[in-house]
Design brief:
mainly alpha, 7 helices, 49% helix
């Protein structure tokens, strides 16, 4: 799972049928929460870090971010909830750092620095809100999440 490449779309779309096709249950619940804008799905997430990420980003409350133990996910959470790209620079992985900057600034140019092609296409789809990029993603679960969260 791309735990450090969690991505909250700039706008939410109700594409839950694609979420239900995701095999990993925590990823499925995160997808459903994001697609429907419903925090109830966050509480079904077993992993506490991902649950707190889900709650923080859906509620736009950074307080949940401080309960996240994994530092990269915590910094991504803080960047998303505070709207401060400075937290993105604390992320260790270059792909996750660039995806965070792209989302936080709404600039697809950062996506082109993401080396992993699946992560790059997911980033481009989310920032541009264009699902055509989703069809180039090889990972079926990530493709389904991408399709659920884009037009």
């Amino acid at each position: 799972m791309l735990a450090t490449l969690c991505f909250v779309p700039l706008t939410l779309h109700a594409g839950t049928s694609d979420c239900y096709a995701i095999r990993n249950q925590d990823s499925r619940n995160l997808c459903l929460a994001q697609a429907q804008g419903e925090t109830s799905h966050c509480y079904a997430i077993q992993g506490m870090d991902l649950r707190n990420f889900c709650l923080a980003t859906l509620k736009s409350e950074s307080s949940h971010c401080y309960s996240i133990r994994e530092s990269d996910l915590k910094n991504q959470c803080l960047a998303f909830t505070r709207g401060q790209s400075s937290n993105c620079y604390s992320i260790r992985g270059d792909d996750a750092k660039n995806a965070c900057l792209a989302r936080d600034r709404g600039q697809a140019s950062h996506c082109y620095s993401v080396r992993d092609m699946d992560a790059r296409n997911y980033c481009l789809a989310a920032v541009k809100d264009e699902r055509s990029y989703c069809y180039s993603i090889g990972s079926q679960d990530l493709k389904n999440q991408c399709l659920a969260l884009t037009r």
